[in-house]
Amino acid sequence: MLVEVIFHRLGAPEWLVSIAGFIVAASTVVGVFMGGFALLSLVERKTLARIQNRIGPNRAGWFGILQPVADGIKMLTKEDIVPAKAEWLLHLAAPILIVIPSILALGVIPYGREWTPVPLELGLLFFFSVGALTELSVFMAGWASGSKFPMLGAMRAISQMVSYELPLIISALGVVMVSGTLSLPVIVDKQAGFHLGFIPAWNLFTPWGLVAGLVFYIAAIAEANRCPFDLPEGESEIVAGHMTEYSGFKYALFFMGEYLGLFAISGLGITLFLGGWQAPLPGLGFVPSWIWFFAKLAVVIMSFLWIRGTFPRVRIDQLMRFAWLCLIPMALLTLPAAAIWHFAGRGLLGWVTTVPLLLIPWVIITVIYNRRLSPSTRIYRFADS
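Given the sequence above, the corresponding structure tokens read:
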């Protein structure tokens, strides 16, 4: 890093060089993704408006480009109301603590060749460890508000997050088994090269990786509280969930943490299954590696927006049933499939053995889930005229 080189030439001690490099890397990550948060809030509203055939934000600035600035000013100037029965210290700490894990998680993701803000050997373990702090923050927000609605919303949000963390983590274990490491930069390096001269050697293009990537993607939608799994803020059921008693900039911090978490979980999925900063086609290695990473990130984020604009919200019983009866069993099946793929030589024998192992249970689980365990058809009775 340039800052470390400058400090070395100035004769600074090693501990000062490390601290300066960490501060600059952290500031860069925070600055980039804070700008990405503002941009994504505008892009999402524009995209949803286009999907719903209506006009999106177009008043603040040219074609509404200054709408994030207007939103920020609005949140900063709104009155901060704290309920009389609230635990004011925890009420203040909860929205701050929900942003910190996302920022820490963003620090271990490799954004390009030789560009990882904090290159930890146990980067994947660190990512999931700091992500577990989100449940604590949500519980603090619900309990410290001193109201029943936020507490009920927090309990529902925690049950969803814990349920979908299991398939999320289990689906990532197959990558660890095949790669033999918990270091995210090394996992990206293991996906270098091409099969047959043009197929990227990404984990997604393997039988176990395809299923694990699909499970990871669905669980990531639920972890990021995105539609159709946006149950923690089910306005028609529990007002605003654990954020009911928050206003002003505290309320904005919850959405900031949600968007930063969306960036983090998408970046992790790209690292584990889409080759990270690796080029998608041979002969494109001259393009800066960070461009490929952010291009993949933009595609993944846009898929989240597309799903939000086209899918209705599910019920809480459907949400939990889908996690425990479908995603978790399929995530567990990816582990023996990844082991067989690794020891079978990752060739034709691996395809022949792992495809039936994953396909047959998938058909059985989906048939049982859809026809046997799904609730019976509801009958809606309307008032007689």
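Residues 89-372 form one domain. Try to locate this feature in the token string yourself.
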